[in-house]
Design brief:
The complex is a heterodimer of chains A (about 475) and B (about 450). Chain A is α+β, with helices and mostly antiparallel strands and about 475 residues long. Chain A has ten helices and 24 strands. In chain B, the strands form three sheets. A six-stranded antiparallel beta sheet of chain B has the order 3-2-1-4-5-6. In chain B, strands 7-12-13-14-17 form a five-stranded mixed beta barrel. In chain B, strands 10-9-8-11-16 form a five-stranded mixed beta sheet, covered by helices on one side. Chain B has about 450 residues and is an alpha+beta fold. The chains are: A alpha+beta (about 475), B alpha+beta (about 450). At the A-B interface, strand 2, strand 3, helix 3, helix 4 and strand 4 of A face strand 2, strand 3, helix 2, strand 6 and strand 13 of B. Strand 2 of chain A pairs parallel with strand 3 of chain B, so a sheet runs across the interface.
Chain lengths: ~475, ~450
């Protein structure tokens, strides 16, 4: 049975609905003058297991399902949702949201046809990929392994989380588009103590696959080793200097700087409204010519990947910045239509109870020519930010901030000692113009990113090679 | 007035869940059911932008098999789903390790008094009327000054919910509550000299909201004040946290004295009970039974009675913020904070906002903080900031692209004064807070 048939059966037959019922709801919406309409069905199974204090003391399981009905006319959107997938409720929702339509173009409904797009991940239920006892055993093994890595480890927290979603989108063109999305994540955190000082370290990873991902290539144990290593480094870290200096960003997760400082400002909604610091800059230089940045939702198995976005549009590899020149924005259907450009497969929503908007998938910078060692060696005095915690951006003023979770001083071309409390702050539209070296070591993050926008969270990926930025403000305590 | 029929209906569902848990072999159980309905509309550039009808329901159950615990939830409250949800929780509990501290709260701690806290004030606003209000709100912002160049719009939200909690010790209570808000966000300037700010008003009773014009005008005023902001040179100076930012500062303290952080030893406030952690004029207390307030509740997420109590008085840390579980782990008694603090109040000093600026003299007024640079384990604090440079008590110019850094242990000790310009829009009620000195990093 193909994916569409499986998902249709899940949502329609499972709730006593026929394909004609969907047509009736959509038909009800499309009778009025609208530009777009859709019904988004979602069912999600979620579980989490967590270990702390040496025991797996709790787990949670959750099942949620529902449908969201949306109608779009010009730049106006009407939206209602329900956790009960029943025809009378869907019809009532359609009636409510129709009220928003006053003008717009008459839309013509096409015949149903299932779009073709490659599945980027298996349709497997990750919750069932290990027996419950095996999940517990894995958590306990990691706990014991972590504790024996360093006698200074005081507390170990390990978590295992998975989500399995079925999605069915009925759009205004009469198409039914389905997706089945697995997602797993694991995290190891440690607290270490040495002569009264306490520091933490954590590492995790994940993908759109199942729990066996953590057993392959020794991954779960590698997370444990990395968490302990980071805490060890932080136990030795001294106060960071403050002021403007050269900053080298490590490969992989520090790509969150691209996501925050650049990516959000390139989302179509902000640019249509002219509220982004990047508004109107397509075709102009926004980065040094060493920088090419893409948003690619098509990477197999990645946390930020989707076979189709939440509007049923296949994802793609979108070039955002090419050799320093801004090429375009990330779009959902409404913003693409209003800006007169093509969709890019970036229409995403947290759930059936949220409206879609332009969101990133996997955002990363392509590799350059320098080696990591050459880049470090080129810095007389600066900071090497090996890894980051989180970050935030004001997309209007362009100002961003990041907190390093692991950072070092660079003195005379060599990494000398670890520093703590490093916060980097800068301006999105000009930070990449200060990139003077790009490494040949592009790395994607380990699969832990979650992006928040307007109160909606979605999984994302980031990545970059080692980058050298001339003159970034470092907020340390040592003035 | 509470609609007791609706509460009774959900009480019956909760009781069914508890009965089902017992049926399936659980030795103890806790269950909750909630239903929320709401309307959100937004308007931008004088026209409606979105109309959203919200309807959420949820069922949550936690079961215990002796000392083994499992939880499950669902957004389907039908009889079938209810059985399945209990089954999922039981299945997890069977695999979880026994935890000697796990379990329902002690029966003696459960709430027995349920005063009407005046939390339920349905607003009969319909979509058309809400759109009209949002349009007026945004218009007030755009009309405020010709320099307002663009808008992210205004929104009007009204939510009404009912929540019932029960456990196998016989606790079964529910209440209805409403929450209404108006917000507005506008821009000034263009290109690389563009700023945005917002304002909002939130209340249990729509009569307690600021007018849509006030909200719009304040959003415009705040946006305009940020225009032509510059960075500062790296320095050390006094810092005044505006009330909304001071809430975050106190929130960081509360996080560090919460049971979960303490028993994990992931707190810079370990072993500080009964010690001086702030200047002796500081008092921080909980007022869970305030009528109509946003953080009011007579019981917490476990059904434990909330307490009107001091957490810090005379600058001394008097008590932690605990749930039954974290209290047991620490060998203490729950403080009724399984769902956080309730109307946490920082007592104000004598000075208003202008007086606080005068007291600071020359230094940085912080009105926005960015990023997550607060380390709860070490107290290290380094966040992106924007605000205003102040000289001789008078605001001179707006500031952005800087960081402020310090260590929370020292920052809390170095509080100079707390203003009476209290922000009542959150669960933490505080005026502005002046710190003696922080490190500023800029260009």
């Amino acid at each position: 049975m193909d994916l569409l048939t499986t998902v249709k059966q899940h949502f329609l037959a499972g709730n006593g609905l026929q394909t004609q019922d969907i047509d009736q709801v959509l038909g009800n919406l499309l009778n009025s003058a609208v530009d777009d309409a859709d019904i988004y069905f979602q069912a999600s199974h979620f579980e989490s297991w967590s270990l702390e204090g040496g025991i797996v003391k709790e787990g949670t399981h959750s099942i949620e399902s529902g449908a969201g009905v949306r109608v779009v006319s010009g730049d106006k959107t009407g939206f209602a949702y329900s956790d009960r997938i029943e025809l009378p409720i869907l019809l009532e929702a359609a009636n409510n949201v129709k009220a928003i339509v006053r003008h717009g173009q008459q839309h013509r409904q096409r015949l149903a046809s299932a779009s073709k797009y490659p599945a980027l991940y298996p349709s497997l239920d990750p919750l069932k990929s290990l027996a419950d006892q095996e999940k517990i055993d894995l958590l306990k093994r990691i706990d014991q392994f972590t504790r024996q890595l360093d006698s200074r480890v005081e507390e170990v927290m390990v978590s295992l989380v998975s989500n399995f979603e079925h999605i069915l989108i009925a759009n205004a063109d009469g198409e039914l588009i389905a997706d089945i999305r697995p997602l797993v994540r694991m995290n190891v955190s440690v607290i270490m103590q040495s002569s009264g000082r306490r520091e933490q370290g954590s590492m995790g990873g994940g993908s759109r696959s199942d729990y066996r991902y953590f057993l392959e290539d020794d991954r779960a144990f590698a997370y444990a080793r990395e968490a302990v290593r980071v805490a060890q480094v932080n136990l030795e870290a001294e106060e960071a200097p403050a002021g403007s200096m050269t900053v080298v960003l490590g490969p992989g997760w520090p790509g969150i700087l691209l996501h925050e400082a650049i990516g959000h400002g390139l989302e179509g909604d902000f640019n249509r409204k002219g509220t982004s610091a990047f508004s109107g800059l397509v075709g102009q230089r926004v980065a040094s010519d060493l920088c090419t940045v893409v948003d690619d939702g098509t990477l197999a198995g990645r946390r930020g990947s989707l076979s189709v976005d939440d509007e049923g549009v296949p994802t793609q590899n979108t070039v955002l910045i090419e050799k320093g020149i801004l090429k375009g924005y990330m779009q959902d259907k409404m913003n693409a239509r209003l800006m007169g450009v093509g969709v890019t497969g970036n229409g995403r929503r947290e759930s059936y109870a949220h409206l879609p908007m332009p969101r990133m998938t996997n955002t990363y910078m392509l590799p350059g020519n320098s080696t990591h060692e050459e880049i470090i060696a080129s810095v007389h005095k600066g900071i090497y930010a090996a890894n980051f915690g989180g970050g935030q951006v004001d997309i209007t003023s362009g100002k961003f901030v990041f907190s390093a979770s692991e950072a070092y001083l660079i003195e005379n071309g060599r990494i000398t000692r670890p520093v703590k409390g490093v916060t980097l702050i800068g301006n999105g539209p000009d930070v990449l113009t200060k990139v003077s070296m790009v490494g040949n070591n592009m790395q994607l993050d380990s699969g832990v990113g979650t992006c928040g926008k307007d109160g909606q969270s979605v999984p994302v990926g980031v990545g970059q090679p080692t980058l050298k930025i001339d003159g970034l403000t470092v907020g340390g305590t040592h003035v | 007035m509470q609609n007791s029929a609706e509460i009774d209906r959900l009480k019956a569902v909760v009781q069914q869940v508890l009965d089902e848990a017992k049926q399936q072999g659980a030795s103890a159980a806790e269950a909750s059911v909630s239903i929320d309905n709401g309307l959100s509309v937004s308007a931008r550039l004088g026209e409606v932008e979105t109309v959203e009808f919200h309807c959420d329901q949820g069922l949550g159950v936690t079961v215990y098999f002796g000392q083994q615990k499992g939880s499950a939830s669902s957004n389907d409250v039908s009889a079938d789903s209810l059985r399945e949800t209990v089954r999922a929780a039981c299945s997890i509990a069977r695999y979880a390790s026994p935890d000697e501290y796990a379990g329902l709260p002690d029966a003696a701690d459960l709430a027995t008094q349920f005063p009407d806290l005046d939390l339920y004030h349905p607003w009969t606003v319909n979509a058309e009327q809400a759109i009209e209000l949002a349009i007026r709100c945004e218009q007030a912002a755009r009309d405020f000054d010709p320099a307002i160049s663009n808008s992210e719009g205004a929104s009007v939200n009204s939510h009404s919910g009912v929540r019932v909690l029960g456990n196998s010790l016989g606790f079964l209570q529910g209440y209805q509550a409403t929450r209404h808000s108006i917000s507005c966000s506008v821009l000034a300037g263009s290109g690389d000299n563009m700023q945005r700010d917002y304002w909002y008003s939130v209340a249990r009773n729509q009569l307690g909201l600021e007018s849509v014009e006030q909200v719009g005008q304040e959003a415009a005023r705040r946006t305009l004040a940020r225009m032509n902001a510059t960075s500062l040179s790296t320095r050390q100076c006094p810092v005044l946290f505006a009330p909304t930012m001071a809430q975050g500062l106190i929130g960081a303290l509360i996080g560090a004295i919460s049971g979960g952080s303490l028993y994990r030893k992931a707190s810079f406030m370990l072993d500080k009970l009964d010690q001086l952690i702030m200047p002796d004029f500081v008092r921080i207390h909980e007022q869970p039974l305030l009528k109509g307030a946003l953080g009011s509740s007579s019981y917490d997420a476990e059904g434990v009675a909330t307490q009107t109590r001091d957490i810090v008085s005379a600058g001394i840390l008097r008590a932690y913020v605990l749930s039954s579980y974290s209290a047991r782990k620490l060998g203490m008694r729950t403080t009724g904070n399984a769902s956080g603090v309730h109307n946490l109040t920082v007592d104000s000093g004598a000075l208003d906002f202008a007086g606080m600026l005068q007291l600071m003299g020359t230094g940085l007024l912080v009105t926005e903080l960015l990023g997550q640079g607060v380390n709860r384990v070490t107290g290290d604090y380094s966040r992106g900031a924007s605000g205003f440079w102040v000289e001789n008590g008078v605001i001179q110019f707006p500031v952005e692209e800087i960081t402020i850094a310090g260590n929370l242990t020292n920052m809390l000790r170095n509080i100079v004064a707390i203003g009476n310009d209290v922000d009542l829009r959150g669960n933490i009620r505080t005026g502005s807070i002046l710190l003696e000195k922080m490190s500023i990093a800029g260009q």
